[in-house]
Amino acid sequence: MSLLAAIAAALVAVLAVGGCSLLGQAAAAPAGEPVFGTLVTEPDHVEDEVRAGVTGAMVELSWAQAEPAPGRFDEDYLGSVRTEIDTLRAAGRPVSLGLGLHATPDWVLALPDARFVNQDGAVSAEANLVFAQDARVAAEGYLSEVARQLDLAGVAAVRLTSGGSPEVLYPGGGYWAFDRHAQTGAGLPPSMPPNPLPGWRPGTPGPDPGRVRAWADWYVGALADVVGWQLDTLGRLGFRGSYEVVTPGVGVQPGDYDRAVREGLPSGLLGSGAAWQVLYAALPRRSDLLAYVSSVADGSGGDDGCRADDVAALDGAPDGTTTAWSATRWIAAVARRNGFGVAGENPGWHQSDALDALYVDTSGTGMMAAAVRQARSCGLVAFYWAHDAQLWDGTVPFRRYAELVGAR
Questions:
Q1: Distance between CA 343 and CA 294 in Å, rounded?
Q2: 247: which residues sit within 8 A by CB, 6+ positions away?
């Protein structure tokens, strides 16, 4: 049995809950074929999409809409989301649910020390669910109500992020571990180990490289901890589907990670926490966990596909070899090295001018064709086009997506 077939078989067993499976019902994908779907799936074209073999669906929540005040939930809003999920499931579309923690209510952001602080004292706009236990407790109340009102047994997959971001990232522009919780340990989640170098600021002299590496590993590992907290919380609430850990781009590969450590962690991409080889190695080994590439066909690595020897190449390739790989190829290899399946989506519309040009290019070298190629080449369990609306509003034609999905 191939790796993808094994993953698919495992997911059927794990996700066949409440008549729902990630592999679909009305138009199940052939063996070895990804489930193709859309992000923020709109109900108006559900039947047309299913007939074309586009079966996967995704619904996004908003914490701010669901809980505008502490403990006060908008039942009409949550009911509308439940109806949306039920409609998609009735059409045979397994649903991936975005928890919407990054759409954080103002009352949570107003909690003491509920935002990130970087080494220069800047305060984030985003909520800090990584280091602030009080923010996590607030989120747990919201997730409990979501589980009660939406019936998680009807959800095939849940997207996991860092909480304040729609991906597993810190804010941009610095290292964001200088709030009171991260520095002193007061109010830190009990699952989080203490800061190994409290008071030290990246980019300043002092500790030896071994201690700098320990701090960097702790910093990236804190993102793994917030993912693990969501796994534990949703498991306690009865969710039994799969989990999509949302990670974009190539990130900071091992050679660049080592260089940053030697140089005392200067400002750069590592501040976002995007060191996927460190993150995925720190996550629990679970058959229901998927590495989710949120930048399929982003142009990195010439949008190359995966090879059978990619995992072996992670250990045996000369330093720098993998830096020429696409984000999809890199994350897929890191995921499989750690025993995880893979799913993903393309960059959405209006990310950048360069990506927009690829987005609307319907040729064989455009984003859509490259994304479908990578999804198949890299054995993705599921691929979602971002977003459903752009397939029907004239940005890019749905018929092209249907052609590519059907051209097996």
A1: 9
A2: 167, 168, 274, 276, 279, 291, 292, 293, 294, 331
Which tokens go with 203?
């980019």
pTM above 0.85, yes or no: yes
Distance in angstroms (rounded) separating the CA atoms of residues 365 and 399: 17
The domain made up of 3-406 is a member of CATH 3.20.20.80: yes
Distance CA 213, CA 385 (A): 37
- Burial letters 307-316, b for 16+ CB under 10 A, else e: eeebbeebee
pLDDT digits (tens, 9 = 90+) for 257-298: 999 999 999 999 999 999 999 999 999 999 999 999 999 999
CA distances from 297 to 345, 356, 381 (A): 9, 12, 16
Alpha-carbon torsion 188, 101, 241, 374, what sign? negative
95 and 83 Cβ atoms separated by less than 8 Å: no
182: closest CA among 161, 196, 165, 163? 196
Q: Please choose, from the candidates 358, 340, 351, 244, the residue with its C-alpha nearest in 3D space to the C-alpha of residue 297.
A: 358
Between CA 328 and CA 117 the distance in angstroms is 31
Confirm if 23 and 94 have CB atoms less than 8 A apart: yes
User: Each residue of 302-332: pLDDT tens digit?
Assistant: 999 999 999 998 876 656 679 999 999 999 9
Cα Rg for the chain, rounded, in angstroms? 21
Structure token digits, residue 346:
């393309």
Q: How far apart are CA 80 and CA 69, in angstroms?
A: 19
Q: Where are the domains of the chain?
A: 3-406
Q: Please report the pLDDT score of residue 31 as a whole number.
A: 53
Is 157 in contact with 243 (CB distance < 8 Å)? yes
The helix (run of H) or strand (run of E) holding residue 37 is strand 35-38
Residues shown for the chain: 408
